[in-house]
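Support request from a user on the community tier.

User writes: "When I paste my structure tokens into the form, the page sometimes reloads and wipes my input. The last time it worked, I copied everything first. Here is what I submitted, just in case something in the input itself triggers the reload:"
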């Protein structure tokens, strides 16, 4: 589904990604784990067309998305749940969800809303409330729901556990597990390595712009050396 090869990204004076290659198969959940500043968000922002690739290639299915604009990437069904959720605070929950459907040109804006409400019943209860009045966990659910409204064929999640209390993180990850069981293809970025390895089939570890390790998630989680070196410090809980 997603095939990234030799991706290089530079910001002014910062070499953020250094020859990153990574792939995600159809129906797979792949985790990308790494410390703050490793380049995780840069990677999915490059996939989404939000930051330019200096070199390398990003392919999704038969499409070479490397030079695509963000709106073309989303129209291809590659949808991102951004770091920090970025819901539209002054709009209602329902309006935020309806916006997500604009990724699908011509589709009725309420198509899919029942599925989102089934996954996150709290969003139905709060549908006419302003998104800014929701708790952090509810905003995370809304950000995920908004992406689902665009019928993703590849869902990119950037640190869905960030800043949430453990009980809320469990709710969010339970929903992600349901999406996995439904066959959704997911690239999950996390600092919370324990949770990410539990959910995913495979994982890559990114450090200072380079993939330093990859493998089956269960193998990585069971490897004491790996845990000590890369996974010892989970996001603060
Ligand atoms: N818009 C930007 N302009 C300049 N430097 C950036 C920008 N975004 C990220 N960086 C830098 O690129 C590196 C990788 O950042 P990022 O991809 O956000 O890491 P992560 O998501 O793993 O925490 C960091 O050194 C960060 O400071
Ligand atoms: Mg980030």
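"...and here is what came back when it finally went through:"
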């Amino acid at each position: 589904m997603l095939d990234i090869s030799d991706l290089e990204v530079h910001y002014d004076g910062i070499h953020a990604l250094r020859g990153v290659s990574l792939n995600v198969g159809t129906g797979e959940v792949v985790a990308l784990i790494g410390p703050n500043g490793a380049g995780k968000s840069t990677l999915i922002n490059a996939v989404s067309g939000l930051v330019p690739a200096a070199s390398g290639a990003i392919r999704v299915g038969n499409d070479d998305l490397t030079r695509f604009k963000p709106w073309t990437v989303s129209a291809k069904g590659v949808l991102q749940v951004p770091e920090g959720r970025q819901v539209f605070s002054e709009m209602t929950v329902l309006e935020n969800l309806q916006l997500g459907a604009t990724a699908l040109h011509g589709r009725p804006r309420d198509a899919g809303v029942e599925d989102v409400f089934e996954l996150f019943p709290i969003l139905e209860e709060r549908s006419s409330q302003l998104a800014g009045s929701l708790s952090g966990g509810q905003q995370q659910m809304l950000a995920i729901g908004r992406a689902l409204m665009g019928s993703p064929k590849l869902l990119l999640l950037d640190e869905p556990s960030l800043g949430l209390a453990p009980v809320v993180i469990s709710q969010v990850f339970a929903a992600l597990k349901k999406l996995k069981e439904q066959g959704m293809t997911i690239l999950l970025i996390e600092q919370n390595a324990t949770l990410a390895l539990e959910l995913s089939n495979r994982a890559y570890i990114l450090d200072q712009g380079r993939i330093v390790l990859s493998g089956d998630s269960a193998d990585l989680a069971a490897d004491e050396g790996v845990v000590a070196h890369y996974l010892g410090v989970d996001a603060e809980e």
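Agent notes: The reload is a front-end session timeout and is unrelated to the input. The longest strand covers residues 14-24. Residues 88 and 145 are 13 Å apart (CA to CA). Escalated to web team.
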